[in-house]
């Protein structure tokens, strides 16, 4: 049998390894502060930047000043907040099917799926990657904000851009039971062949995925996140978090998730998170190591 991804990374096949991934860098100043704090302290290992957002420039400058950071592009096709909006990088005239009535990216992923033309999606995603590279970010990987790139009409674009820019894209072996719990059971039929094709194309496929970030009541953060860690299986799993510094800015943008983001900043950038991973016997790795595997193969 060929070596597993864990073995290719220098671990045992039975080891449990977490890619502790900070999403939404660049979304706002608070997200930048929280993510870079977590990445500096750990156990967060890597993260990805939302290029269309207003605080991308700050994030990119920090990335250039700290080249050791493991940062990708959080490919973004929607803008979900009520009072905080952004538009496409490629320009409104280039991607009109990606605009809502106010000229911004649509609020929901379903709006994108229903209205966006695939050729314009490719123009926009390519523009986001190129802007990050032009700003000096050493892009280690690509992933998809709110999973929009996994809609069937966009999925091949996502994989193709990973191959073109020679970086891994987030792709994990689908768990049909987990998809069913999230009301997305029908996606399994689409995702299984998609991920298999990515593997055949040389894109490393992760063994597991935990997206249960931002899903806990105040005071239950450690219990919730310890349960997430306990649920990671053998092999390499992608564990999403959304670290951000609490305060007026975060409260104004996302009041329903502000306390969770601030907790994840302290947990995935502090002693409590490091101890929780140690207690579970979990190893950690970033996406740069996986990019190196892809480029060396």
Walkthrough of the structure:
With 297 residues, the chain is an alpha/beta fold. It has a single domain, classed as Alpha-Beta Barrel (TIM Barrel), CATH 3.20.20. Helices cover 44% and strands 12% of the residues. The protein has 13 helices and 7 strands. Strands 1, 2, 3, 4, 5, 6 and 7 form a 7-stranded parallel sheet that branches. The longest helix is centred in the middle third of the chain and has 17 residues. The two termini are 17 Å apart. The model has no long low-confidence stretch (mean pLDDT 94).
Considering the chains and any ligands shown, give keywords for the structure.
297 residues; alpha/beta; TIM Barrel; 7-stranded parallel β-sheet; 7 strands; 44% helix; globular
Second rung of CATH, namely the architecture:
Alpha-Beta Barrel
Return residue spans where pLDDT drops below 50 for at least 5 consecutive residues.
none
CATH topology call: TIM Barrel
- SSE sequence, one letter per element: HEHEHEHHEHHHEHEHHHEH
Distance between the termini: 17 Å
Q: What number of structural domains do the residues give?
A: 1
Largest sheet entry: 7 strands, parallel
Q: What's the CATH H-level homologous superfamily?
A: Glycoside hydrolase/deacetylase
Number of strands: 7
Structural class: alpha/beta
Number of helices: 13
Relative helix content: 40-55%
β-strand amount:
5-15%
Compute the CA-based radius of gyration: 18 Å
Question: What is the subunit organization of this protein?
Answer: single chain
* CATH C-level: Alpha Beta
Mean pLDDT: 94
Shape: globular
């Amino acid at each position: 049998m060929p070596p597993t991804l864990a073995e290719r990374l220098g671990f045992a096949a039975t080891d449990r390894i977490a890619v502790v991934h900070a999403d939404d860098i660049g979304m706002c100043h608070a997200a930048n502060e929280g993510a870079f704090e977590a990445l500096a302290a750990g156990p967060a290992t890597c993260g990805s930047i939302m290029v269309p957002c207003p605080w991308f420039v700050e994030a990119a400058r920090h990335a250039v000043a700290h080249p050791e950071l493991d940062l990708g592009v959080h490919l973004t096709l929607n803008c979900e907040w009520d009072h905080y909006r952004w538009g496409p990088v490629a320009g409104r005239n280039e991607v009109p099917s990606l605009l809502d009535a106010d000229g911004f990216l649509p609020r929901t992923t379903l709006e994108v799926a229903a209205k966006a033309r695939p050729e314009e999606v490719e123009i926009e995603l390519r523009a986001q990657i190129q802007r990050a590279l032009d700003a000096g970010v050493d892009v280690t990987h690509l992933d998809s904000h709110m999973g929009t790139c996994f809609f069937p009409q966009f999925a091949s674009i996502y994989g193709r851009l990973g191959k073109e820019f020679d970086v891994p894209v987030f792709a994990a072996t689908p768990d049909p039971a987990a998809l069913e719990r999230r009301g997305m059971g029908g996606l399994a039929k689409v995702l299984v062949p998609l991920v298999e094709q990515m593997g055949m194309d040389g894109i490393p496929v992760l063994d597991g995925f935990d997206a249960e970030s931002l899903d806990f009541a105040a005071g239950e953060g450690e219990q919730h996140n310890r349960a997430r860690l306990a649920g990671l299986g053998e092999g390499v799993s992608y564990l999403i978090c959304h670290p951000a510094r609490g305060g007026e800015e975060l409260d104004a943008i996302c009041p329903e998730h502000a306390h969770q983001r601030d907790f994840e900043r302290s947990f995935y950038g502090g002693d409590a998170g490091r101890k929780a991973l140690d207690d579970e016997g979990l190893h950690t790795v970033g996406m740069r190591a996986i990019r190196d595997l892809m480029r060396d193969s």
